[in-house]
Amino acid sequence: MLEEQVENAKAAGADIAQAHLRMGRPDAEVVALAEEIGAGLIVLGSRGLGGMKRVLMGSVSDSVVRHAHCPVLVVRW
Known about the structure:
Blueprint: H1 2-11, H2 26-37, E1 42-46, H3 51-57, H4 60-67, E2 72-76
Parallel strand pairs: 1-2
Helix pairs in contact: 2-4
C-alpha cells in the first residue's frame, strides 16, 4: 500500500526522497522517526474531529505538536 501511494504522489508531480513504514502508535512513531532522520519540519494532515471524538480518541496531530523536537505544520483536509 505504501508503494502504491508513493507512485500516486509521483504521478501527481511530487518528488519523494524517502518513504517509511512504521508500526505502533502513530504519534509516537512520527516523532521517533523525525528524530531518527533529523527532520527539520514535520508536516501532517488533520481531519479536524469534533469535540467528543477528539476527547475519546485523542488527536495524533496534537500529540505530535506537543512532543516533536522540531516545528510541526498541521494541514486541515
